[in-house]
Amino acid sequence: MTKYEEDYIKYIYSKIELEDRAVKITEIAGDFMYSKQSVIEMIKKMEVRGYVKYIPYKGVTLTTEGKKFGARMARVHRLWELFLVNELEMKWHEIDDEAHLLEHATSELLEAKLYEYLGRPEFCPHGSPISDENGEIQKKRYLTLEQARVGDTFTVKKVEDEPSLLKYLEGRSVRIGVKIVIQSVLECDGLINGRKGKDEVFISRESAKLIYGIIS
After folding, report:
1. What fold is seen in the domain 143-215?
2. How many whole angstroms separate alpha carbon 10 and alpha carbon 32?
3. Residue 156, strand partner residues
4. Domain 1-139, CATH among 3.40.640.10, 1.10.10.10, 3.30.70.20, 3.30.1050.10
């Protein structure tokens, strides 16, 4: 399997691991910044190899073999992200590209050693689940920050890997487990004004859609 095929499978898996659905071709093309036609051509090649199933007008799903491979790629990527943060003290907005390079060169033996070395972790620095040695993950259903209302306390549990957002949150010490009390939400554009301890945090509606957690 080529590196590009691995990237496609991991991407599709990340979209469906907590929600069984078809991933639209336009969604893949947009995130990879490829043409729709080039994505379709790649998907058809992978379908012949038995990793994906293309459903016209609906999108792409993974076969059993594709899900198995996607789960491993996601697991290795997230293990390396945790290693880079815990051991090399990198910031959570700096690690995705590095982990991407490392995942393609990781053997099953190194994967197993890394998992044990890190203490058999369940989540990566961004809050995404890390499967165990049997492929089982801790499935969590969260609300988005966009769904929070004035007076709610929002506990951050997961953040999508969007570098600019992660960098902004890092600068305001907003990490997994942090609680944000919602002070106000502007009706015109959905801008959220939250308070973390004594500090204020402002988050746009679009960014709030990428932050997941528990509302109390």
Report:
1. SH3 type barrels. (2.30.30)
2. 12
3. 213
4. 1.10.10.10
Give 33: exposed, middle or buried? Use CB within 10 Å, 0-12, 13-18, 19+.
Answer: exposed
pLDDT of residue 214: 96
Give the closest residue to 11 by CA, choosing from 1, 24, 106.
24
Helix 25-32 / helix 3-16 crossing angle, nearest 10 deg: 120
DSSP-derived 3-state class of residue 107: coil
Where in the chain are all domains bearing CATH 2.30.30.90? 143-215
The answer, yes or no, to whether residue 141 has pLDDT greater than 80, is yes
User: pLDDT digit string (tens) for 180-213?
Assistant: 999 999 988 889 999 998 899 999 999 999 999 9
Cα–Cα distance, 122 to 14 (Å, whole number): 16
